[in-house]
Protein 1
Amino acid sequence: MERMRDWDDLRHFLAVARAGSTLGAARALGVNQTTCARRIAALEAATAMQLFERRQAGYRLTEAGARLLALAERVEQEVRALEGALEAERRMLSGRLRATTNESIANAVLTPFLARFREAYPRIRVEVTITDRALELARGEADVALRAGRQPEAVGVAVRRICHLPWTIYCARDYAMRHGVPTSRAEIGGHAVIGGEGSVAKIAGVRWLEEAAAGVEVVSRSGSLTNMTAAAVAGIGLAALPCMIGDREPALQRCFPPVPGIGGDLWLVVREEARGVPHVRAFLDSLVADLAAVRAMLEGTAPGRD
Amino acid sequence: MERMRDWDDLRHFLAVARAGSTLGAARALGVNQTTCARRIAALEAATAMQLFERRQAGYRLTEAGARLLALAERVEQEVRALEGALEAERRMLSGRLRATTNESIANAVLTPFLARFREAYPRIRVEVTITDRALELARGEADVALRAGRQPEAVGVAVRRICHLPWTIYCARDYAMRHGVPTSRAEIGGHAVIGGEGSVAKIAGVRWLEEAAAGVEVVSRSGSLTNMTAAAVAGIGLAALPCMIGDREPALQRCFPPVPGIGGDLWLVVREEARGVPHVRAFLDSLVADLAAVRAMLEGTAPGRD
DNA sequence: GCTCCATTCTGCATTTCTGCCGAATGAGGT
DNA sequence: ACCTCATTCGGCAGAAATGCAGAATGGAGC
């Protein structure tokens, strides 16, 4: 035989051999069944050997194929070793990186993540700026930002949607015991309501609550979601909050499922120039992997898209 | 980093690391330089690591890249081992195969090849039918044929051109000493000429010689090129022969370089149905590899296409 | 200082690969 | 006996990878 034309065929060979079918292998590899079948066919053609028997029930290794499997596994083992080394290499990356977000997201997402990230990449120094102002990444004020709400618009940056951020109405558990819980928008009328101030007052969820409570006294106003959360925890009244925040407070409970129409999205914004830099990539990759967990948690409890 | 997306990137990585440039690697791999550059870029993007420094003089490994090289070489080693096993596996192929060709090609090409082939694939039984008749492969009279001349036409077969077969005029060395050597078509007039008979008389080269020698006695006629060769060796006169045959006779010498216009081609014909069968493939692959040597020898001495 | 050469990169055309869809085929369960 | 399910295979359209040609760059040799 000539030299192996495409080492990637071995990856497919292993997957098919293990799954026992091109379909199963395709699922495992995240590709189409046809692709697996074709790569096996290509490998067999290149080597002029029959590696599998085609059956209705799937692909079964021939004797020769089975003998080859062991060898292919050794190749795989070395590839895994290389991947491991690559990972180790990567953990030695160093550099400085400036991230920014608002207080709520910092508390719920970024800060917990940073703890893990520092473990994995001790030589990457991350400086976090927590502010309500949206720093201008394009001007070099920061490299990475996490933003909530509508899709951020800016030039010179790459924007990526992470997940949906459902909102709903929360109240303290002891508030619920004392005053009961509204189970629909109509029942909000009789309750004390915590409102927003400044830019916070403009948030869809906060407006929704104030409008639902039309005529009722707003007992507290705050320009910070964190503050509003604290007010709710203190049992002052109902507050509209992102589930990402409200669910993290053991003292709070949802009044009803996430409200359609008041949710936002979580966006990851990266300065275009910083995007390709290895240690920034490492940060982003880790962050995105970490956010997958947040996403899973939220989507599990979220309604459909609103 | 995620899992390695494409193991074949490692092959390119190795090639570039060794060649020191994407261009050199591309040559080694038989692909385009751009492809190498792009696969390295893809690998670096996937791993978010800089593996090479781009310079005008070429690609140079970074420190991290150099550390990875050793690992990649281990992968390669395992792939080579697998290739070896595959080859060994292949040598255990068994089966029967019928080949056919004419006497000249059998002597010059097929028989010498068969000796080597039997060593490599002891369990494949090859039956050779040497005949001037063109057996009908499509009818199952044989699986593989080697043919000389014009492109064979037939249905149900795959035809592949191996190389050009130059012809020229030969005479025995001692004939040359006794009678001199014609150095052009015009000088043939005074020499004794060996002609063909039957289908051999129709071959372009044989006709060319007889026409060049118009009026001169044809001292011998034979229906077999082998016979004509023997006659030439015996010093009877000049003979038109394919260089493939004439050059193999130490007792013969070329009168002049290959004559444009009288050459043919060597064709490999395979019965369509037999093409995919492993042991036939093994035979064909070996034969083609072997013929590359024949080709190199002939093309080295051949004129341009005629 | 000049040319020549090997190299990299970019934009475009083409080939190749991949995914998707539907049909066919058996096996297994009801 | 029939349905359902998992599987393979073929054709087709879109996507991705590849090759090609040209421009730019910088070093080596004359």
Protein 2
Amino acid sequence: MLQQTTVVAVVPYFERFMTRFPTVQQLAEAEESEVLKQWEGLGYYSRARNIHKAAQIVSSQLGGIFPSDVAGLQELPGIGRYTAGAIVSFAYDKRAPIVEANTLRLYARLLGYDGDPRSKEGQQVLWSFAEAVLPKTQPGRFNQALMELGASLCSPKLPDCEQCPVSGFCRAFRDQTQLEIPQLAKRAVITDVTEASIAVRRNNAYLLRRRTTGERWAGLWDFVRFELAAATTDDVPHIVESVHQRTGLKIDLGPQLAELKHGVTRYRITLKCFVADSVAGTLRDGEEWQWVKAAKFDDFALSVTGRKFAKLLAESLF
DNA sequence: AAGACGGGGCC
DNA sequence: GGCCCAGTCTT
């Protein structure tokens, strides 16, 4: 859960997740849909599928016992070099280096490494340093202490070098280059896109589609949804036709109910939300569809925008 | 090596 | 509005 996600965001998810799946066996036996439901809103949903698969491997192939070495742990889906090192050092208190966001910043600054820390060379430099500084005693506590130092005093924008216990060894402090290091690559440019989301209604239930592998939000449910070309954002016949192509259903499109803004990966999405009545046609094969009453939306793991739309829908019924 | 993958918090 | 977060996997 903590991969690329702040502790503050994770804590409530962690609490609920551990309550729902207290043992690796219970996680392994759960349906993937249930795991995704618990993960709903946290993002990076491949992590949920990976931890579920990993639990199944540990439970069925490893006798319920986690590997206690880095190589063995890295065999499990979703566990890379950092997570493996973290488990080995924190849980088993064995010597294993770690480099993640906090220690990456701390080590790059200590070394005065001004290259790209994520490049092959940068990774080599930082992991070697992480290995070299690791003590024989209490390596787990050592790793956690340095992560905490990176997260607190050695912060990205406002490092408190005056209070830092290792500023005497820090080349970035000596050179006053703290704010130039680490030299992280810029994020990809953001592209604006407009999408339509249509809650197609029939017999007091709404049409949901399970998003498939290869799509964003794979495994989550969503209303009928597609991108709108700039020229067609207010073109009602075009939307009606697109829904027909997508679902096989003829619809009577209602007014736009809401417009949601949502940033995701390298897109800023403007989502136009409509309600429509299905008046004819049969549902297309090859997709996972379900008609769901508003009261049952909570049983489905929805995308964040799908969830917001569902909430609006439920409220508008009053 | 570069991209994809999410969502929220902070300034 | 941009930056960043207890990374990993795919292409």
Protein 3
Amino acid sequence: MSHNKVVNGNKMPSSKEVALLAQVSQATVSRVFSGQTNIREQTRLRVLEAAEKLGYRPNAIARGLTLNRSNLIAIVSINVVNPHYNVMINKVADRIQKLAREPLYFVCSEEKKLDEIISQVLQYRVDGIIVLSAAVSTQMAAECEKIQIPVVVFNKYTVNNNIMTVCSDNVKAGWMAANYFHSKGYRNYAFIGSNTFLGTSKDRLRGFKDALFEKGIEKCEVQMVPYTYEAGGQAIREILSEEKKIDAVFCAGDMLALGAMDTIKYEYGLKIPEDIAVIGFDNIDAASWPPYSLTTFEQQIDKMLDTTFNYLSKKLNGEAISEGVELFECKIVERSSVL
Amino acid sequence: MSHNKVVNGNKMPSSKEVALLAQVSQATVSRVFSGQTNIREQTRLRVLEAAEKLGYRPNAIARGLTLNRSNLIAIVSINVVNPHYNVMINKVADRIQKLAREPLYFVCSEEKKLDEIISQVLQYRVDGIIVLSAAVSTQMAAECEKIQIPVVVFNKYTVNNNIMTVCSDNVKAGWMAANYFHSKGYRNYAFIGSNTFLGTSKDRLRGFKDALFEKGIEKCEVQMVPYTYEAGGQAIREILSEEKKIDAVFCAGDMLALGAMDTIKYEYGLKIPEDIAVIGFDNIDAASWPPYSLTTFEQQIDKMLDTTFNYLSKKLNGEAISEGVELFECKIVERSSVL
DNA sequence: TATTATAATGATAACGTATACATTTAGATA
DNA sequence: TATCTAAATGTATACGTTATCATTATAATA
């Protein structure tokens, strides 16, 4: 059938077959490929040559079984179209590879199903789990802790003894946004958040309202919508339609902000920032483009990743490091969507 | 030390431990969890109860070893910030999960290193490999074929007997773009492609030039730049700076097109489409936003994914299906960046 | 050369699962 | 009840690696 009859046509050769060809024991082959030192150069070469000839590659699955770890690190992310998000995922994947591990990628349609997904993840005996923008249940966190699998929740504020949480200080950012608006003379506020990232949006809203309260302002139009450009437009439409006079809108995501801006300009013929000022969140690429020039918040993603991976690698090396919540301050990137 | 002394504090229980508690053999536990039928309901429940009590989860790694397949499907993608791309990756991941497999995600910084990455992928004895926008070497393709691992190259035209290629008909799309421009009366052309997706860009350029040639037009300014918004701007700057009169530019990617458009409008004060018409590629979200309203090409991503996963699942089920190149036509989405 | 110390290698037992085969049990029939 | 058949379960082994321990080969020393 096959044109190739060498050894075992259709499956990858094992170390045993390499050993046979190189005339050494299987253990020696294993030693060569697990990078041990006590090997005579001559035999090492003979083994490598035999391996080359057979197209041998160590079986990571089998290795995982004996070592009781897979070298896999899971990324669990909610399924959302968000440029900022995809940048994050790529960065996370890259860091995992730099840790000499492989990213096992799980997409989670609804946050409700997160526990189910993690349960699946655990079947792979991953070395660690990074959850993006979703909350891990207390029960699941306890279970992971019990079997010594480090979990980092990234970009979602949760308090949980057993897991590491790395997150932006969203409450403070909201507070900063309000103060920034106020300092520029704006007085009639609106907030557009997303129910896709509900917790995060709520935190930003809380900080926003806190600051307004400090200034003696109670009124603030609030819309919570899906995280899309269109929904941003729809939200501002709701706000503007009912004769509610606002002159400043804080959007808990650039995508929402861009949708709102275009609606403000093209549907209502209003000027930004003269009629309405806008602040966004995430500083996605498009925020800096001339048609928008959106003032927005930048998160310290790289520093957050440093913390995440410092924690993970310490855990993986068995070094002591304690869990907790690590908050990072956001920075306003000033452009021209606010006076 | 630990507050929990049940069985084996810090590692996940095995089927053996479950068997012990349920007073059955390990084989029976295995049978319950691999969904076999010949099990008395009573014992099945006893096993499930014991498993529940111990927090047992089958070890996918060990299962992979015996079955000689991991249930993993690798996604190998080049590292690029491209919204269209991230949408694709999410869709691919989702389909993999629907196939009851898990996506193992590899990011490849340079296309040169693809073979190296695939070599790593193969260590995990993945059930299949999906390569996005990168070419697999003939040698590597042959190797994968030999060990019966199906490979699909998505979104990159390559001819290779051993792998399945699913790709848009880029040559034809380029040809369509030129004809579209020409039918609207434009006569002075430029092309901006990306060296990040060089092969794809070249194909689109070839079709574009072919059509121009048919019309008796030889001249066409060409720029090949990295796939970014900024590079798109820089490219059009190069084209416009040297007194080269052009009135139509075809960009092999929306990101490039948006960058070019903003530069045309805000730096040169020219009007789109009156002074210069623009066609993009991919139909990313931003292309439809009012400031751009970009006429662009839409790829039949879902149909392409259908073909990809139909091929994969047939291969995985051992059904016969032959490799080959499957091309999909692109569709122009007409907006107002062309007269 | 004989003796040691050390480096290199081999033999073997895990790791947790699935499965072929052997055995037991339960249900059906006479 | 005895017998037979089929279903349920148990036993034992293999999957490809790593690691421990035992053994052999090599180099260093007297």
Protein 4
Amino acid sequence: MTTQARRSVTIEDVAQHAGVSRAAVSKVIRDAYGVSDEMRVRVTASIAELGYRPRASARAMRGSSYTLGFEIPSIHNHFFPKIITGAMTALAESRYQLIIAPAGPDHDQGPQAIEVLADRQVDGIVAISSRVPQEWLEELGRTTPLVMIGRHHASVHYDTLVADDIAGAALAVRHLYDLGHRRIVHLTLAEGVPDATSSTPHGVRALGYERVMRELGLEPEFLRVDPDDARGRDGGESQAYAAVFELLDRADEPVAIFAAHDELALGVLRAVAELGLSAGQASVVGYDDTDIAEHPRMSLTSVNQSGTRMGAIAVRLLLERIAGRAQSVHEVVAPKMMARGSSAAPEHRAHERRRRTP
Amino acid sequence: MTTQARRSVTIEDVAQHAGVSRAAVSKVIRDAYGVSDEMRVRVTASIAELGYRPRASARAMRGSSYTLGFEIPSIHNHFFPKIITGAMTALAESRYQLIIAPAGPDHDQGPQAIEVLADRQVDGIVAISSRVPQEWLEELGRTTPLVMIGRHHASVHYDTLVADDIAGAALAVRHLYDLGHRRIVHLTLAEGVPDATSSTPHGVRALGYERVMRELGLEPEFLRVDPDDARGRDGGESQAYAAVFELLDRADEPVAIFAAHDELALGVLRAVAELGLSAGQASVVGYDDTDIAEHPRMSLTSVNQSGTRMGAIAVRLLLERIAGRAQSVHEVVAPKMMARGSSAAPEHRAHERRRRTP
DNA sequence: AGAGTTGTGTAGATCGCTCTACGTCCATCG
DNA sequence: CGATGGACGTAGAGCGATCTACACAACTCT
């Protein structure tokens, strides 16, 4: 294990050490056709002895970089780590490595993080950001294998993977309805926020919410927050808190709140906690079933869209694409309801009319 | 904005379009010396018109890839995103991009994630994993700018950045002592787990704990968990839960538990919640002050080591290194106590001797 | 005026790998 | 026995950038 400090060991060094050509070494490390057993053994030994590691950037120039890139819109939303975990597990035995490019705090940096990956010549990209124009993605998908998570529209040049958000929203609303709630408010992103178009998870959840509410003969009631308002990099938790605090403070009857994702739901729970309301007085349902939801102190009812499975599927789709599949695929996974303590049968507040201000 | 689908636009295309040499274009994009205003304008225009983006892998072959790599040991520990956030903010105005390589679920993959970054020819690496041998890092630091977070030992070939874990542990213990607690248990990682040597955060916290306990005339009492036991990728939360459940179930007197990090503390809180104990009966202090600690439903007392600041400092150190600084630096940041509801003055349990089993 | 400076641009080598094309050896076959 | 074809290796071009020279003006000094 002689390691020379100055310049690190290249394929040339290995070739010389093994007494063969560069091409031969290349074949061995790529497990390509045309290598005898004897040669494979010899080269492998040299590689080990010299501690050689092929440089991804050099490989990327002609062949592949053996790297898959994941773009995640926010490093704070605990849902994304689930996807990554699923992806890493799926990738464990493969020769591919995974790197993550987080989108910057300025949310308009939609494509930027994805470009970072493309510039790095990754062999394929999984992206989640909903704030990226469709055409832009089509363009990218034309040259790079691409899987978009959370796009309800199928595409020609890239694969899409999405949870059935209509069904998920229905699960949430029905759960609350079955508990006995009749005032069910949907907390979601402000219109104008690019996420909220109909093809995005939030947009579709809102749609599903509205649809089920009407089916149930209830009047939809939206509460919208704009996470961009906050320079507070918390994904809307504090906006949700403020908006819901006001709403709940005003309300005298039981209210159920269906938040478009757990981050928002946490803000809701904060307001509920500060107002000292019970789950019956203010029921909360989140979306994503992030790790923390299950904690007994949180006990947040949430819709699970199995992030780990999505991560694994995304990887599978991407590898298929890289392997050559031409036509695009649109996969949909089914969500599950996770009922917990934050939602309960409606319970009327004591008659002393309480009102507080933050 | 004519974008040719087939082969993407290279520096050669830009050069031809602008009627200059490749070298000239290269100078412009690197903002290098020897470009006239007139040329800069012309080239910039061509770049914009063609939608040219330099490929990081090609750049990396001779120059730099303008990429910094962050290795994080676990995608689940909510402390690390804080560091990333700080780093991204610090990097916002620079030409450098940030990518993340998460360590795999198998914890022995210490160096692997770091190697992934090194193989990608990043210009510098910030790594957090404590499960990497010192010599290995020295070797790496010899060839690549490297900042290690959470290493208490200074090094010759890389910079180190650490919070004062002795002081942090003292803050935690003193806080509990001042509340009136006398039985203060330290929940930390099992010996044998590589993290727990004296140079790692957990090792040093344990050391600090022991030291302060003795100063206060109290007997240290360790409770150790081994996160590797769990194939449960939860960073020890479930082990912590199990261990503490048993301890608390047995105890009749108030117990204070100082957990080595918030992830463990959440497990403790889970046990506390299930046993229905008050903060006075079982006080909990965590470490890292992750986002969730501050939530009123959690209200976890925790030691804050300002992850965002650490991220920003790490970036600064790395950029200094890249710029040429030769001798290594060892920075220490001071922790802060965040007292919240999970810790309270000891309160004796009601006399009916309760005992439950999971 | 000749010799330095600057300032600006280009040519061409080079980074470390992969890939195509081709050469060689050897066994098999008509 | 020469042709055929498969197995195994090698040579050398090429990927897209950067970087080191160096050329050529246009100025500025003696």
